[in-house]
Design goal:
By secondary structure, the chain is an alpha+beta fold. It is 40% helix and 23% strand. The chain has three domains: 118 residues, Translation, Eukaryotic Peptide Chain Release Factor Subunit 1, Chain A (2-Layer Sandwich); 144 residues, eRF1 domain 2 (Nucleotidyltransferase, domain 5, 2-Layer Sandwich); 89 residues, 60s Ribosomal Protein L30, Chain: A (2-Layer Sandwich).
């Protein structure tokens, strides 16, 4: 079992279809957590069986799915894990379970799709981000998320200043070869002769490759390196997701875990800044007809692909029965079997149409969700 990460959301969405069970719990702690006692688990399994039957499963089908869940939880109950939370997703297409970095109060939801909102809000604290370590001797590009950090190859990115010098030397040699009309000359000679220009050209090539690699990914980019190299990179930067903060110092002097934790905090601060900037922008656009608030109006705009940015009160709840044919919504104060989490539905639709979703602090907004539309 591994910690859940942002890439798991799209894979789980692809496995939806038919009755689904979404379960969130605290880590079993070797069976010592009260929610993991045999009596509590038996009660949970009975509830699942009843809920799946209400969603159209035969008693035999419901029992088979619940037995698979029971087997996984029984094995997990024996484990003492450093992870404080567990989440599990079961459907007719399969079953997956993950650890979570945060404790998860017991919650089970049975719908015709997975209930992923707790994962979305949880991943707000662990955003996916890119980390670029800069030094003259070695450049490294990493992708990170809740599961950790991993180095990635980037096409056309020089890994050191020495490699860039060799590139310049080779290019200069080729351009000085005699041609039909005589000898060709090229201005790159100054890069070899001037160390500052050579470093600047080196950083320019790194930025060009990294920006191409991150194009359309939309994730924050954190720099790590000396004040000189990070400042030089910012002068060349064209990627809009570059974080204001940087990890200053020798990147090789830090452990991988330290890079991940510092980068995570900077990426989170960057996302918080974007959310505040979006909120401020909304305040100046109240009379332009591009602000939607509440439930149905926001969800309809998201389904139509019109939501540019969605701000969600992470402490709000909004459940309802949706009729796909008519688009009508019947809200409920408490979730009923087969209900849809309307906030999650709007967030999914927004992300599917390349909009941004910001999970704000609990009870910090005057509506459960507010959308800035594209038109």
């Amino acid at each position: 079992m591994k910690p859940i990460e942002s890439s798991d959301i799209s894979r789980l969405e692809a496995r939806e279809g038919g009755p689904c069970v979404s379960l969130y719990m605290n880590s079993p702690n070797g069976g010592q957590d009260p929610a993991w006692t045999p009596l509590k688990l038996a009660e949970l399994f009975r509830r699942m069986t009843r809920g799946l039957a209400l969603l159209g499963m035969t008693p035999a089908e419901a029992r088979r799915m619940v037995t698979r869940i029971e087997n996984v939880l029984t094995d997990l109950r024996k484990e003492s894990s450093p992870w404080p939370g567990v989440c599990l997703f079961a459907s007719p297409g399969g079953l997956e379970a993950f650890w979570m970095f945060q404790a998860a109060p017991p919650e089970v939801v049975m719908e015709n799709h997975f209930h992923l909102r707790p994962v979305m809000t949880y991943l707000k604290e662990y955003p996916a981000f890119a980390l670029l370590t800069l030094s003259r001797n070695r450049v490294g590009f990493y992708l990170a998320d809740a599961a950790g950090i991993q180095r990635e190859l980037v096409d056309d990115m020089p890994e050191s200043l020495a490699e860039t010098r060799r590139f310049i030397s080779t290019e200069r040699h080729m351009l000085h070869q005699p041609a039909a009309g005589g000898t060709l000359f090229h201005g790159h000679a100054t890069h070899e002769e001037n160390p500052v220009k050579a470093i600047d050209f080196f950083i320019h090539r790194v930025e060009k490759a990294v920006t191409a690699r991150l194009d359309r990914m939309g994730m924050p980019l954190v720099l790590a390196g000396s004040r000189e190299l990070t400042a030089m990179y910012r002068r060349h930067n064209r990627y809009p997701g570059l974080c204001d903060q940087a990890i200053l110092g020798n990147p090789r002097a830090m452990t991988t875990a330290a890079r991940w934790e510092k980068g995570r905090r900077m990426a989170q601060a960057h996302m918080d800044q974007l959310a505040e900037a979006t909120l401020h922008r909304m305040g100046h656009m109240r009379n332009q007809g591009r602000i939607k608030r509440g439930g149905r109006s926001v969800l309809v705009a998201a389904q139509q692909g019109r939501v540019e940015s969605l701000l969600v009160d992470s402490g709000a709840t909004l459940w309802g029965a949706m009729d796909p044919a008519t688009g009508t919504i019947q809200p409920h104060a408490e979730p009923h079997t087969g209900d849809t989490d309307l906030i999650e539905a709007a967030a999914r639709e927004t992300m599917a149409h390349h909009g941004k979703v910001f999970w704000m602090a609990p009870h910090s907004m005057d509506a459960p969700m507010t959308a800035l539309t594209r038109y």
